[in-house]
């Protein structure tokens, strides 16, 4: 019984990866210092593997992103990888590749652009470079394993490569029907690489193919089969899949590959597939059986029983592994000092997952051990954290609790009256170093709660004055009191814990700490009412209440596992709705519930979308159920929404603000085709760049919107929150935005005929 682990966090224990790269970008450390720090973080990863498992990949290291590295490797961006300036230009410079969500995770990868007919070649054999550099050292490292335990002795490492299908499928610039041709075009470069790795002594090659778990059309399966039939002859390949089940597993088994990695935690259907196919004796099954996506300790005994069953079905070798790369988990539970001990002893982060693999191997080879018994004594259990009143509330929900009493077409007229093309922002304003310092000082006990509160009030006051001066129509309070839109609510809600050091990478060097939903969720006191009502007391313009939605809190946290995700979402929704009711009672007329993760929370397989979006929109509606006079907004960003418009419609929000500044009007035409009846604020400028948009550029975006939507449906706003921008960027940008709105609004005065938009939607509607 072997163990194999992969995807261990590159962030390092004290976020050394982040600190080093950011210091290098700022110019406070030299390139040599950067390289040393990165070597240290990589060493930490390898040490962690060696301590617990028999084999692991080498070359998972990346300066920024593995998809970018693969694109450079294949000559799509033929830069010299030793030229860090050129590399970081592609990663985060003015001409950086766009970011997109990696499968259904909150990691964002850099999306390469391909074109049909593009020729690939092995420009940079990165896996070979990494393998040869580390191999000698890895093989000479003293093994921590009892020698008898492992024929892979000493700890062995295999080169790591992102496979051709995943690379092509996740790139842009090619249509789905061109995918098979592109995969075929990638084969020669991969064949060359695999041959070189084989010659360099790699016993196996880890080929990441998570895209195999998506809906893979027949033509693609044929292309995959052709590609691997050839590639499998160049070297022994371990084809790794994860995040869900592989629907064409039986076809994969027939390929001349050395092993297949499957996710047996999140790909529950893989169990069924495995029971129906026979894996030949010369193949390795890498069984992902400890969870790479959630933080609860594995039940070692029941997993051991599962593995026994698997051994009866599978003729070949079984290696025990993690299900999904461990990068979605923080480094170690050990660093946490303030968690409830009853919670802490039930958690397993990345380091603990490796320990679990070690314990499992022991359990399976030596029989029940004392250490396994001890580990298993701490399993997630509801009994510790249940709140009967919350469960009763969920049990007594009726269909009408999910719906607003008055349909949109009628309630619209009962809501706050605003000028045509109302202007607003998405919620947050610059989180300056001063704001962050004050929050840290407050958390460290250096300033009192009262001092902190006064500071936040002063910020709100200045922002209200600024919005008056800018002439915006709907104000916000600025979110100065919030560190992070999910963590802020997690800290206030019962049943959710936040960590001190539980950082994971979101993209590049950006990190966040997912909260842990461990019990029934309950709001014991108002969370935002004080700040919002204070802001509202300073102005006669409406101030938007600002909340994070249940689906986003759920998706960006680690959930409990004893009840379905949808039940957790409903509990969160009720807690948020309690806040909505309090805001309403306090006289707030507009409330925004952000759901940026609504799309991302969707399952990877289309067939499961309806069921997901049904409960996700129900959770949103439960949170947003308010009197007809209250205008409910939602906000989404960072996703391709064109395929999910009808699901967005299910949410029944009065207004949606959405990222559109960069999507060149495609999104808007999709809204038009769909005949979306509610109000939409397409982002009129991109908040992710420091450039100040001109009045004309904003007018252009607006006019594009007005070609497909009647003006009564259109709002004017940036495409996301402004918290990462500087005041010097934000103020002129908003000034221009208000100016553009005013100019276009003026063109509608008198009749509904816009002066400058040419053939317009308004014409069709008049
Ligand atoms: N209201 C949040 C903000 O403005 C929304 C953030 C988001 O969409 N991710 O920061
Ligand atoms: Zn956003």
Number of helices: 28
Coarse morphology: globular
Residues in β-strands, percent: 5-15%
Q: What does the largest sheet look like?
A: 8 strands, parallel
- The CATH class of the largest domain turns out to be Alpha Beta
Terminal CA distance reads 74 Å
Share of helical residues? 40-55%
Q: How much is the average pLDDT?
A: 92
The CATH topology name of the largest domain reads TIM Barrel
Radius of gyration: 27 Å
Per CATH, which architecture of the largest domain?
Alpha-Beta Barrel
Descriptive account of the structure:
The protein is α/β, with parallel strands linked by helices and 766 residues long. The chain has 2 domains: 2-375, TIM Barrel, CATH 3.20.20.210; 417-764, TIM Barrel (Alpha-Beta Barrel), CATH 3.20.20. Helices cover 42% and strands 12% of the residues. The chain is built from 28 helices and 19 strands. The chain has an 8-stranded parallel sheet. A 5-stranded parallel sheet has the order 15-16-17-18-19. It has a two-stranded antiparallel sheet with strand order 3-4. α25 links the parallel β18 and β19 (679-682). α11 packs across α13. The N and C termini lie far apart (74 Å). The chain binds glutamine and zinc ion. Glutamine is lined by residues 426-428, 479, 485, 546, 594, 596, 635, 637, 720-721, 723.
